[in-house]
């Protein structure tokens, strides 16, 4: 290898890291969707060789997985704000779903990739790594909500919320498991419909409200004691702010 080639490679790799790639990919996805991403484009915009990406990521799919975590931020911000208004475990249960679906229905491709694709199996460790790289994006919320987010299994993630209702004596463990299964299956149906048919920005809030109402009906069916603060849910974005 000539000295000139070595100098070129050193320049290509200089000062780049995983965060740089993730940030650049997120910016492109936010403006153009994943269709705007290619290894060649990333190399051109970052001033490096195409092979440089493989020093930091297994492949492009792994980079896209991390880049799409940027879309969790709206969920975390909404969640952090909403948590201050919850009065009981059912407010929390419905409230987490409300915040989650508001973000998921706005960014369906991102949430599908994060929670249902192959890389989602390592979501727990990936979330920790991502927020170590982007500490400015993390919101402060209570420990079991953090555990929920870091759980790689979608059904178990929701069950973390169900367990809080069991501990509060509001539902039996057996019924909590049934409630958990129905709620998660319901959500996947909603998300699949949006992925297939799309959704207008102006229709997102109404779709979220419909989903929360469906979750409320399921909870009422299985709970021994179901009470929640009705005025918290179905409010407009303007009212929440």
UniProtKB/TrEMBL annotation:
Coiled-coil boundaries: none
A molecular-function term among this protein's GO annotations: DNA binding
Superkingdom field: Bacteria
Protein name as annotated: TetR/AcrR family transcriptional regulator
DNA bind region: 38-57
Keyword DNA-binding appears in the UniProt entry: yes
UniProt source species: Peptacetobacter hominis
Keywords, ordered alphabetically: DNA-binding
